[in-house]
Amino acid sequence: MTVKFARMKAAELLSIVLNALVMGVFWGPWIGLTRSLATFEPAAFLAIGHRLNLNLAPLMTVLMPAALLSTAPTLVLSYGNQPTTFAATLAGAALFAVALTVTVAVEVPIAVRIKSWSTTTLPADWRRHRDRWAAVHVIRVVAGVLGLALLVAGALYG
Fold this sequence. Notes:
By secondary structure, this protein is mainly α. The chain has helices at residues 3-32, 42-69, 72-78, 83-116, 126-157. Helix 1 runs antiparallel to helix 5 and helix 3 packs antiparallel against helix 4 (83-116).
């Protein structure tokens, strides 16, 4: 095994693991909660929203950018000599960039609003915010699943 090959495989592994963790955070809440958010009473919705934000915001603030940046070594090492790996990794990174953009542009502002709400200060249009968050979360789930599949495909078939 050459040093360059070993570096490539280490870079691919790191990228796959970090992006799998990100995708798992997208997938878990979607499968366990988001699909049924509309059935929760306001107090339960707020308790869940507050807890998710408290638990996930600090982690994802670091993990999402780190995972996206972890694709860079694979891109650099595969550029020019492993076009399949390069293309699959670039496409996977692009999908994770979409997820990061959706998170920062749409979901975080909604989470910040929800963080300030209580059952006594719940705005009249709270359901609109909840439903928008849930709808946009699907984009993150799809982008994460497809992005991870592309990273793995690039590592396996490159």
